[in-house]
Amino acid sequence: MKQLKGRDLLGTADLNTAEITDILKLARQLKSKELEIKCNKVLGLLFYKASTRTRVSFTVAMYRLGGQVIDLNPNLTQVGRGEPIEDTARVLDRYLDILAIRTFAQQDLATFANYAQIPIINALTDLEHPCQILADLMTVQECFGSLQGKTLTYLGDGNNMAHSLLLGGALTGLNIRIAAPQGYEPKPEIVKQAQAIAGDRSEIVVTQDAIAAVEGAQVVYTDVWASMGQEELANQRIPLFQPYQVNQQLLEHADPEAIILHCLPAHRGEEITAEAIEDERSRVWEQAENRMHAQQALLASLLGWE
Ligand code: CP
Ligand code: NVA
User: Fold this and answer.
1) Whole-prediction pTM
2) 3-state secondary structure labels for all residues of the chain
3) CB of 102 closer than 6 A to ligand 1?
4) What architecture (CATH level 2) is domain 2-128+292-303?
């Protein structure tokens, strides 16, 4: 995928429809072992927030490509002690082939990208989580054969996950319905961007009505009610978010063949019941596995495998 070589992935809409299709195809080929790709490169991980799936799946994906990984824990590197991002970015650029960053402000990620020539990957910011969306789309494709015309309902906080789902759905023809409490809707500019991308291809809806949003949906998706960095707000949000909990009662409104997704980590009894996450319709473990295949395909594409 020469067109992706050297590019950054700062947000989902940095990819176009054809590029997402190609990455998902490559991910399927890597998962089925139909294809093996080797590129002896070095990936840096600079994570300012906790991570299990993203950290481990990126690491294993890079090992599978024959590459190496350096964990640049901000507590152990100078950037965590105030060295400017502009300086750190220019130095890391000289050592690494590619860098995945998990941080708070999207602007910090953009600064890294402005000062480093190597591909910079958004491994989650407060605004977006594009790598998660690649795995989510791959999982929906595996379950239903295609994305076009299917409906994914996301319930809960209009956060980074909601933003990336809106854009990823719009780019691939997957209808996206977001049900969020008043005041917790996704950013209007992202909703507008998703609607503009989707055009007539897919439906982009934001509502406060959880039941109407789930009606007939093929995918029921949720995420934590308080994201990393918002922990102190978690308890006060619980009563407000309760109508958006993924539970058996709500799932009765979905398509009988519906699947349940969650990017994880999950808080059982809050955004999803224990029964729902362990339900036979749940695909959360396949979804988590697909992080590795999708990111292996992404890394290979950005590194320009031949
Ligand atoms: N879904 C996800 O990004 O998980 P981690 O926070 O464990 O990386
Ligand atoms: N919205 C969550 C996603 C975790 C993968 C967070 O940002 O903490």
Assistant:
1) 0.98
2) CHHHCCCCECCHHHCCHHHHHHHHHHHHHHHCCCCCCCCCCEEEEEECCCCCHHHHHHHHHHHHCCCEEEECCCCCCHHHHCCCHHHHHHHHHHHCCEEEEECCCHHHHHHHHHHCCCCEEECCCCCCCHHHHHHHHHHHHHHHCCCCCCEEEEECCCCHHHHHHHHHHHHHCCEEEEECCCCCCCCHHHHHHHHHHHCCCCCEEEECCHHHHHCCCCEEEECCCCCCCCHHHHHHHHHHHHHHCECHHHHCCCCCCCEEEECCCCCECCCECHHHHCCCCECHHHHHHHHHHHHHHHHHHHHCCC
3) no
4) 3-Layer(aba) Sandwich (3.40)
